[in-house]
Amino acid sequence: MQKDFILITLADDDEDDRLFFTDAFEELKINTVVNTVNDGVALMNFLNAPGTVLPNIIFLDLNMPLKSGIECLKEIKANPKFKDIVIAIYSTSSSEEDIENTFVLGANIYIKKPSHFGKLKEVLSEVVTLNWQYITSGLNKDNFLLRM
Amino acid sequence: MKLFLKTDSHFLIKKILKEKLDVFNIKYNLINTNEILFLETIDTETYEKIATVLNDYGFEIIENQKNIIVQKIKETIIEMIANDQIPSVKSSVYLAEKLNHSYGYLSNLFSEVTYTSIENFIILQKIEYVKKLITHHNLTLTEIAFKLNYSSVAHLSSQFKNTTGITPSAFQRILKKRSEINNQNIN
């Protein structure tokens, strides 16, 4: 009897990546409901649409056409309506400056995109499980920083 | 014409619960008017249906027993850390004594409900407390390590890094920059 689940939105322009992520989410122990968007503009439209049930966590690709992950991050953080959403940025970049900058702008999680599926599953499992503790144990989201 | 009525609410509640629950063909015991024991496992869908039906009559499902015990475990851990009372006995012994269940039982139950282990939860809460001390109390890492009974600053630092992926000083720097940006926006 488990009715708990976590709402995830994934923003990525690469179809293969979206597939990898959704597959990985499906294999987690925690129940997830995942919805995907193909770029930053679509993400913001989705979040701003009336009647949208806001996700618990957004996985945001840093490099997307139309509107980049950083622009989305800034917009999300500027709107108090979205203050409860945890933001997980992922990118192939491992530049210290990029990483620190996304944290300073308000991202909670930075994931360096792993090169193979097994590792990705491991990383996502850790992220979602930790996020679950933040949802269920009243931890302070402002102090939620995780680098994977 | 007026009618004067008298009711027995206990009787009424039992009758409603019985009528509503019998429909689902699940074996159950009415322990009391506020406690139902299901004698078989019920799936999420049925659980939702039962909750909806009972809700129509003003019944609210509070929580199941497992969640209550898990909640107690969490509270005990948080209290243990916040009061700086890292017990001299091992935390497993402490929890078992405090909650009157074997540690094995508590540990299994905890993992089942929270998807993480008691050990990980304790580390998470400790690091959470460290973050609070860093940001709100301006304590140095040395002071924090002493306060929380870490054997050394190095041990505290490495546990922080292992849990969050960043060092305590990077954490401090990031939060400081964040609040500077927020202050600029306000001004």
From TrEMBL, chain A:
Where in the sequence is 4-aspartylphosphate found?
61
Keywords attached to this entry: Phosphoprotein
Asked if the Swiss-Prot or TrEMBL record annotates the protein with the keyword Phosphoprotein, the reply is: yes
Q: Using the record's annotation, list all stretches that form the Response regulatory domain.
A: 7-128
Q: Which SMART domains match?
A: REC (SM00448)
Quote the Pfam families the UniProt record gives: Response_reg
Read off the InterPro entries from this record. CheY-like_superfamily, Sig_transdc_resp-reg_receiver, TCS_response_regulator
For this entry, the protein name equals Response regulator
UniProtKB/TrEMBL annotation, chain B:
Q: Does the keyword Transcription regulation apply?
A: yes
Q: Which residues form the signal peptide?
A: none
Q: Name one Pfam family in it.
A: HTH_18
* HTH araC/xylS-type domain span: 75-174
InterPro entries on file: Homeodomain-like_sf (IPR009057), HTH_AraC (IPR018060), HTH_AraC-typ_CS (IPR018062)
Keywords (A to Z) from UniProt: DNA-binding, Transcription, Transcription regulation
Q: Would the keyword Oxidoreductase turn up in this protein's UniProt record?
A: no
Protein's UniProt name: HTH araC/xylS-type domain-containing protein
Tell me the classification of the organism that encodes this protein: Bacteria, Pseudomonadati, Bacteroidota, Flavobacteriia, Flavobacteriales
